[in-house]
Amino acid sequence: MTVVAEQPAAAPGRVRATGAATRRARGPRRHGLARTRPVASLAYVIALALAGFVLNDPLQLIALLAVLFVALGFAGKLRASLPYLRVALYVAGFLAILNPLFSQGGLDVLWQVHLPLLQIRVTIQGIAFGVSTALRLSAVLIAFALYNLVLDPDDQLGIMSRFSFRSGLVVSLATRLVPVLSRDAESIADAQRSRGVELDRGRRRDRAAARIPLLSALLTQSLERAMDIAASMEARGYGRGGRTRWQPERRWRFADGATAAAAGLAVAALIGGLVAGAFHYRFYPLLDDPWAPLADPWWLLALAALATPLCVEARWRR
Amino acid sequence: MAAIATLAHVTYTYPGASKPALDDVSLAIDPAEVILVLGGSGSGKSTLLRAINGLVPHFHGGTFAGRVTVDEFDTRTARPAELAARVGLVFQDPESQAVMTTVEREIAFGLENRGIASPAIARLVEEALISLGLSGLRRAPLSTLSGGELQKVALAAVIATQPHLLLLDEPTSQLDPVSSEELLAAVRRLSEDTGATIVLAEHRVERCLHLATRVLFMEGGAIVVDADPQAFARWALAGHRELLPPVARLFARRLNGGAKAAAEAGRLPLTVKDARGMLDDVAGQLESFASPAPAREGDVVLEARKLAVGYAPGEAVLEHIDLRLRRGERIALMGENGAGKSTLVRHFNGLARPLAGDVRLLGRPLKELSVAQAARDCALLGQNPNDYFIKDTVAEEVDYSLVQMGFAGRERNELCSRTIVDLDLMDLLMRNPRDLSGGERTRVALAAVTCGDPALVILDEPTRGMDPLHKAELAALLRRWAANGRCVLVVTHDVEFAARVAGRVLVVGDGSLLADGPVHEVLNGSLFFSTQINRLLRHSLPGVLTEDEVTWGTSLQ
To answer: What φ, ψ does residue B73 adopt, rounded to 5°?
Structure first.
């Protein structure tokens, strides 16, 4: 027999496994919002998303994006957010480029061209509006990413079950189903490749056509899996009536309270500012001073509130 | 003593099925019994368990006759959800029974459904975590757990509800030997400490027979044998020796008279411990005729040099792999769950690209071939046969593979016929592959990948959930293929199967290839990766792995 590795088989492996086991025991190590109580995290994410909808001034929106990125970073989710950021970049870039070409407003004309059926008139105001819209959309998308990455499906279910357990369960199971479906699809594709089916050759249309027969296998497997889960749920008493709800005991920490309070304050400031007209920034016909809204008291209050959980986290880390 | 559950003349047919899955089954389950249910694929084991907890007929529909009662509940009127407080069922596939995403919430799910108050749930979850050694994983996402850990979570989730009757449907079929031992130890503790009543359906007799106080054997939906383990062993001697654990088969060969002689001789050993006690008197009468390792001299089919495999640079699962696989070899690739076995073999047909090093298939660099091009020379059967089925009949599946591999005309017809005969598919040709039993599905999927007469055949965990008879058939097929010049590589946790099939064993772990040698050297003396016979005879006849390699002294025969 060839002894390929001289060292005792178990020793180093055990060291490695213990490390992995410890990591999993705590769950993925949690920081920032990811370790905050789900209700507080959700409130904070709602406040951030609301800010994305309410704010107009490009500089305010840039400040909001900075808050969002710091929150993602503190939660240890920057890398995980890359797919969301890519989508945000594409969509925002598309809007930022398209708006100046089709928006005819604004007095500061940079460039214009007359075509037989179309007049293109690019203005500073059009560009600023396009950029602002792109920043708003990015802020909302990143807030959505933060929600998805920070709150695991069980937490989401825990919150939703206060209102409707069934709806919450559907959302939770559907959330779990997406990665499972993707894994099943990959597994079926690999099986077909292994029997000689070319799935990766030719133009995109050919590759898509080659994959169509795989859909029936994927659908069948998804249905079988869904049936298994349904059977498991019924065997474990689901649907019996009189269900209770258990939340693993997590002590409210100072950071949880601070996050929830800050989120409440931020929402109040944003709504207050909206009612008071504080966030009305005009792009047309001439741009308002972009720096002026930064000194608005409603904005300062909202920003301070949104930054508070991050300051608490930064202090805790020190 | 009042029975905890009874089945009276239960006959059940699944919707659309022509034959009943349960055929006039009557059974009484007494408290604190541990019942082992044996039987081939499709014999009705799972259906029996589902009838006891009411999923049959409430969830599955179909035609139901007879009566099942659990405590005072009649399952015709009580739904599974109502029975959940009394009957707990652990399913075969740990992944398809999880509802929540973290360990503690998964365990709490059943308790919440029962309407238990929150403080009591916290206590019961804690107890379940401790009893199965899962405390350290309480907040771990289920997606990060191994199959063994997941199955333990499933068991914890059921025992947390403190059912009177625990049903386990092939709970170890997806697990490696270490995880299986751990799970079964937990079941044994549960039985011994709490007196729980357990019904366990399993294929691997050698793992579970020692736990049982009673054994049922099912065939065609009916209970053929209902006996204590010793009486069952004597019955199996008469014509179902494959159902006996290897140590029992070894001692049975000493009794040429079969069941009658066994009855006269007294007990058959059912565990290594039993056999060791009986061996003291007769050890000197055993002789080994284990064959020496065959020389490796066939043409090289696949060569891996300095291979590193993994999913991202700098995060190799296995490194420094140097291998040569030759025609005529039968190789078993073993290692614990997550060691990288499946990942490694995906590099042998190009499904995955190496992080470093290279692989040559019949002398050609694999990186120059697409997976589809490599499929003619290297057949890889994955763990789930269903992944291969996209046609309506078995015949179409085989033909589709041949077309995709580029065969045409007479050659295509010849290969198709040869594959059908080789894998005994003649009776199944017009059937939909998804309607077949587990063993039949494996054969059809195997036909779909091997119909092009490849030089190398790789099977990833082909014996999962397979009964002993089909396992023996598969072993014979693989031996035949190797004898005809193919190289056969089997990824498996099933040590007994590896010992029967393989001539060479590779063991991976700790990020590298730990051992590569003849089966009798690699599997000899291991604590978990060794056979029952080896554990029994490792001191008196070192190197012996199966009972077929041992003979009793002629004076006793």
So the answer is: -90, 135
What are the tens digits of pLDDT across the range A63-88? 999 999 999 998 888 888 888 888 88
Q: Is B134 on the interface with A (CB under 8 A)?
A: no
Q: How far apart are CA A274 and CA B15, in angstroms?
A: 61
- Whether residue B139 and residue A190 make contact (CB cut-off 8 A), yes or no, is no
CA of B52 to nearest chain A CA: how many angstroms apart? 11
CA-to-CA dists, residue B469 to B174, B235, B247, B439, B475, angstroms: 18, 17, 18, 10, 10
The torsion angles phi and psi of A245, rounded to 5 degrees, stand at -125, 130
Reduced to 3 states (helix: H, G, I; strand: E, B; else coil), residue B434 is helix
- The count of C-alpha atoms lying within 13 angstroms of the C-alpha of B40, restricted to the half-sphere facing its C-beta, is 13
Rg, chain B, Cα only: 25
Residue of A132, A139, A126 lying closest to A99 (CA atoms): A126
Chain B, window 61-120: residues with a beta carbon less than 8 angstroms from a chain A beta carbon: 79-82, 84-85, 87-89, 91, 93, 96-102, 104-105, 108-118
From CA B157, how far away is CA B109, in angstroms rounded?
Answer: 8
What are the E-state strand segments in B387-500? Answer: 456-460, 487-491
Residue pointed to by tokens 């995880």: B179
Residues 123-162 of A with CB under 8 A from B: 152-154, 157
Chain B residues with CB under 8 Å of A229 CB are 96-99
Show pLDDT as tens, one digit a residue, over chain A (318 residues): 444 443 333 333 332 333 344 444 444 556 667 778 888 888 999 999 999 999 999 999 999 999 999 999 988 888 888 888 888 899 888 888 888 888 778 888 888 888 777 778 888 998 999 999 999 999 999 998 888 888 877 777 777 777 777 777 887 777 667 777 888 899 999 999 999 998 888 888 888 888 888 888 899 888 888 899 999 999 999 988 888 888 776 677 888 899 999 999 999 999 999 999 999 899 998 999 989 999 999 999 999 999 999 998 887 776
Cβ-contact A229, B99 below 8 angstroms: yes
B119 to chain A: closest CA residue: A246
Task: Count CB atoms within 10 A of the CB of residue B271.
Answer: 19
DSSP B174: T
Q: Which among B112, B138, B145 is the nearest to A243, CB-wise?
A: B112
pLDDT in tens, A24-39: 444 455 666 777 888 8
Over the range B390-405, which residues count as b (16 or more CB within 10 Å of their CB) and which as e?
bbeebbbbbbbbbebb
> Using 50, 70 and 90 to split pLDDT, how confident is the model at B470?
confident
Whether B5-227 and B300-538 share one fold: the answer is yes
- Find out whether B294 and B350 touch, Cβ atoms under 8 Å: no
State how beta strands B456-460 and B487-491 pair. Answer: parallel
Cα separations in angstroms, B119 against A240, B111, B126: 20, 11, 11
Domain assignments of chain B as residue spans, ordered by start:
5-227, 244-292+549-556, 300-538
List the Cα angle B121/B122/B127 in 5-degree steps: 95
Tokens representing residue B348 in the block: 């042998």
Of A12, A187, A235, the CB nearest to B80: A235
Nearest CA to B271 among B297, B308, B298, B246? B246
Q: Cα separation of B94 and B75, whole Å? A: 25
Three-class secondary structure of residue A29 per DSSP: coil
Query: Which tokens is B85 given?
Result: 């407080």
The domain defined by B5-227 folds into: Rossmann fold (3.40.50)
Structure tokens at A258: 């601070």
Q: Residue B324: its chain A contacts at CB < 8 A?
A: none
Q: Which residues pair with B515 in a beta bridge?
A: A3, B507
Q: What's domain B300-538's architecture?
A: 3-Layer(aba) Sandwich (3.40)
